[in-house]
C-alpha cells in the first residue's frame, strides 16, 4: 500500500509574494509545517504528475491552463472571499461613502470610455459563469471562514473550513512595553481602509473625552492612491500611521492596548485579524463579521462583539475598555488562550485529515 505522505501535493500561491498574508499564512507556512511532518508537499513550480493541487485564489483561466498542463488528479480551491453571492454587507456601507456608490462607479467607468465599460462588464460576467462551473466540479473546497463554508456548500457539498494559521512570532511579543497613553489600533490592507468610517465618529468623540491615541497599521498605498488618500483626509480623528512590515508587524501591534476590527454587517471574513490581536496581547472589539459573532458565541469572555454597527454602540464598547483596566486585562488573558488553538502546528492537522479523506476515498 502506498504511503499517503508520498503523494505529490502542490500549493499554487495567490500572488507569489512573500509578504502577502494569504500566500504566507495559507501557503508557505502550511507547506513548511507539513513537510516537517513528512508530507511530499511543495509550492507550485510547473511540476507534473501531481496527485493533488491546491489553488489559493479564484481558479481563473490561468489556473485552468495550469490544471491542463499538470494533469493533477485532484483539485482543491482555497477560498477567502465570496464571489458568487452578492452580500448586502459591503453595499450598504459603500452607499454611505459617496465615492464608493454604484452610481459614482458607473459614471467613472463611462468617463473612461463606453467601450471599456462594456468590455469590463462582459469579461466579469464570463469569468463569473466560468467560476461557478469550476467550483461545482473541483474535488474539495477549503474556506477561510465558517460563513464562507455555509455559502459555498450550496454549490459543492465537499467543503470544509480551515482557519488561517497564526505564526509563532505573534505569541513572542508579550514583553513589548506598551505605550504610555492608552492606544487603540487598527491593522488591515489598503482595500479595507474604508471600513474605518464605521468607527470614525466613536473614535472622534472618545479622543475629545479621553487622552487616547489611535494607530493605523497598513500599506503606505493609502496615501499614494488618490481615492484612498481622500478617505484618509476625511477621517475626523487624529491618528499615527505605521507602515505594515512582515518583520515588525507583531512588535508594533503589541505596543497597543486595544485592537479593533469593524466590518459591515454579515461580512464573511475570517477571524485572523482578531486572533492576531489576541495573540499579540490586545483586548479586542469587533463587529459585523459572521465568524466574529460565532467566536463571541464560543468564547464570550475573550472579546467584545458589537451586534449592530452604530457610533453609539462602538463608543460605549470602547469606553468600557478604556476606563475598566480589569476588564481589558481579562479579555487579553482569555483571548491569548483562544489564540493558542490557532497555532500552525494545530491547524495543519486539519490539512492532514483532509488529504487522508481525499486519498483514502480514491482507493476505495
Task: Give a short overview.
This protein is α/β, with parallel strands linked by helices and 364 residues long.
Quantity of strands, as a count:
12
Which radius of gyration do the C-alpha atoms yield?
22 Å
CATH topology of the largest domain: Rossmann fold
Please give the count of helices.
Answer: 15
Please give the largest β-sheet.
Answer: 6 strands, parallel
Please tell me about this protein's structure.
This protein is of the alpha/beta class and 364 residues long. It has 2 domains: 4-86 and 136-165 and 343-363, Glycogen Phosphorylase B (Rossmann fold); 168-342, Rossmann fold (3-Layer(aba) Sandwich). 47% of the residues lie in helices and 14% in strands. The chain has 15 helices and 12 strands. The chain has helices at residues 21-36, 61-70, 88-96, 102-112, 114-137, 146-152, 200-209, 221-224, 226-234, 249-254, 272-279, 290-298, 311-323, 325-339, 344-363; strands at residues 9-12, 41-43, 52-55, 74-79, 140-143, 159-161, 183-187, 213-218, 240-243, 258-261, 283-287, 304-306. A 6-stranded parallel sheet has the order 2-1-3-4-5-6. The chain has a 6-stranded parallel sheet with strand order 9-8-7-10-11-12, with helices on both faces. Helix 11 links the parallel strand 10 (258-261) and strand 11. The chain is globular, with a radius of gyration of 22 Å.
Amino acid at each position: 500500500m502506498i504511503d499517503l505522505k508520498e503523494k505529490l501535493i502542490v500549493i499554487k500561491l495567490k500572488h507569489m509574494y512573500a509578504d502577502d498574508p494569504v500566500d504566507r499564512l495559507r501557503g508557505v507556512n502550511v507547506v513548511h509545517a507539513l513537510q516537517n511532518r513528512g508530507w511530499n508537499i511543495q509550492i507550485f513550480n510547473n511540476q507534473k504528475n501531481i496527485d493533488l493541487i491546491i489553488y489559493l485564489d479564484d481558479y481563473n483561466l490561468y489556473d485552468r491552463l495550469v490544471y491542463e498542463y499538470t494533469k493533477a488528479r485532484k483539485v482543491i480551491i482555497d477560498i477567502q472571499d465570496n464571489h458568487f453571492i452578492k452580500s448586502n454587507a459591503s453595499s450598504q456601507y459603500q452607499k454611505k461613502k459617496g465615492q464608493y456608490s454604484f452610481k459614482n462607479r458607473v459614471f467613472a467607468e463611462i468617463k473612461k470610455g463606453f467601450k471599456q465599460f462594456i468590455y469590463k462588464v462582459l469579461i466579469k460576467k464570463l469569468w463569473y459563469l466560468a467560476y461557478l462551473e469550476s467550483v461545482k466540479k473541483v474535488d474539495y473546497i477549503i474556506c477561510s471562514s465558517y460563513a464562507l463554508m455555509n455559502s459555498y456548500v450550496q454549490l459543492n457539498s465537499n467543503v470544509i473550513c480551515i482557519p488561517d494559521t497564526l505564526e509563532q512570532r505573534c505569541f513572542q511579543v508579550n514583553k513589548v512595553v506598551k505605550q504610555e497613553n492608552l492606544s487603540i489600533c487598527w491593522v488591515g490592507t489598503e482595500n479595507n481602509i474604508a471600513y474605518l468610517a464605521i468607527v470614525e465618529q466613536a473614535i472622534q468623540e472618545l479622543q475629545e473625552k479621553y487622552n487616547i491615541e489611535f494607530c493605523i497599521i497598513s500599506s503606505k498605498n493609502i496615501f499614494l492612491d488618490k481615492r484612498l488618500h481622500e478617505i484618509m483626509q476625511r477621517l475626523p480623528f487624529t491618528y499615527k500611521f505605521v507602515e505594515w512590515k512582515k518583520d515588525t508587524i507583531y512588535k508594533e501591534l503589541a505596543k497597543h492596548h486595544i485592537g479593533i476590527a469593524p466590518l459591515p454587517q454579515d461580512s464573511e471574513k475570517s477571524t485572523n485579524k482578531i486572533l492576531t490581536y489576541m495573540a499579540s496581547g490586545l483586548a479586542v472589539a469587533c463587529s459585523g463579521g459572521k465568524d466574529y459573532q460565532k467566536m463571541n458565541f464560543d468564547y464570550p469572555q475573550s472579546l467584545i462583539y458589537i451586534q449592530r454597527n452604530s457610533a453609539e454602540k462602538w463608543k460605549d464598547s470602547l469606553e468600557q475598555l478604556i476606563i475598566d483596566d480589569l476588564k481589558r486585562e481579562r479579555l487579553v488573558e482569555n483571548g491569548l488562550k483562544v489564540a493558542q488553538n490557532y497555532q500552525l502546528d494545530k491547524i495543519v492537522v486539519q490539512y492532514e485529515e483532509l488529504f487522508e479523506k481525499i486519498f483514502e476515498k480514491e482507493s476505495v
